[in-house]
Fold this sequence. Notes:
Order of helices and strands: HHHEEEEHHHHHHHHHEEEEHHHHHH
Helix content: 55-70%
Strand order of the largest sheet: 4-3-2-1-5-6-7-8
Distance between the termini: 49 Å
Radius of gyration: 26 Å
Strand content: 5-15%
Shape: globular
Low-confidence stretches: 467-474
Number of helices: 18
Amino acid sequence: xxASKNPGLRQSMAGxxxxxxxxxxxxxxxxxxxxxxxxxxxxxxxxxxxxxxxRPAMLDQAAAAQRALGTLAREGAGAERWQVILPGPxxxxxxxxxxxxxxxxxxxxxxxxxxxxxxRATQGGEFFYYFHFSLHYLPATLGRWIVGLCTxxxxxxxxxxxxxxxRIFKDFFTFRPGKGQxxxxxxxxxxxxxxxPFYLMILYTGLVTLMFFYMPWPALAAFGPQQARAELAKVxxxxxxxxxxxxxxxxxxxxxxxxxxxRLRWGIDKVxxxxxxxxxxxxxxxxxxxxxxxxVSVAPSWLLFDGVSGALxxxxxxxxxxxxxxxGAYALHLGRFADPxxxxxxxxxxxxxxxxxxxxxxxxxxxxxxxxxxxxIGLLLVERGNVACVAGLSVAVAGFLLANRLLPADLAQRTQxxxxxxxxxxxxxxxxxxxxxxxxxxxxxxxxxxxxWLALPVVNAWTTPRGLTTSWQAGDQMxxxxxxxxxxxxxxxxxxxxRVSRRP
Length: 504
């Protein structure tokens, strides 16, 4: 009898690479795509709310915040807490909120005039941001656990791929088009190596950002089940102790000197928000919170002032090494600090990640199809699922954007209808992929995707005055850039449809 050989390391890793990729592949494509879109969620939110004017090129943060406090004094009189979120370079509206216990009201204001804004109801780019880590319709806890599991599986896929790929960098420069399985393998190798450091960083930091959710036991052991959430919030968000209301009325101090103090410490236009506790009371406190746009860390940083006299009471410019490490990982994942070029690289790398997974899934189906005479249920499922999750997702995103322009402004539950249109379009695409042969489904959905993306600039120009812009004035560049991006996606979809239609 001959002793059976144990599989070597590369063989073991190949099996792990295959099964981890197959089990998590479709969801990973959606996570990468929606996560990539999220790097432009502020710009996308502006496009989805065309009624809001562009942010002034030169904005006095102190004056804008003071106007917002004036609005809050009228609308939120008697509230326990006011908060003003100031617009950054990528945001064109100021957000003012007031809170009484668990009740919270919000207004969007024009930062230049302080006037209230009433744009169309939409989740904006926030929909894609929250979908990519909580999966929307699922309960938040379940969705985040599923995404966390897929993230771990994707780390396994990437690391095992590095182990099994002997000529990883040599093959990166090799692409042989029109060779069937060989071409898909070359494409998979190219996308895998193209942004390899990004994949490792984004997957690891994705787990770190929710580490208190996935591993709450240290906090539970330290603080107990009743206080753990509150204690974690203290280190993750601006938190400061405020005295109880005195019952004695007193006017708030002017914001200008307080904002000047923040500017001296942090620089120009670095304030992210202003928080007022007990407004109108002699025990009021005003916190000036630093924004995250210029920091490779989101560890909280703030100044606390007496709300009546304006005296500086406390500063918080440092955090423990653990919180700084967590804040750095969180900031790396979100990329809020990125300049336009780096943000585009974040976006392109995310899309390359989706392409890496998609080409791997297609490669498995092509290879499997060549080795069987009668396809089984697994092969048929993967072939059709690939169509639904790649071409179908493109149709769904375009459907969401079209719904924003076409749904009546006064439609009840308009925000939810936008989201429903996304899933209706995706479901229709999945139905097409299930009913047609794979090649025909690819072609049909690619044509549908191209028509949807081509329709967006036309519908935008037809439904909004901003869509008719022909000059490169402040704010117009963004709308023109979106039109160019939609046209580029339409061309890409047309190219895919053309290539698939030429296949025998």
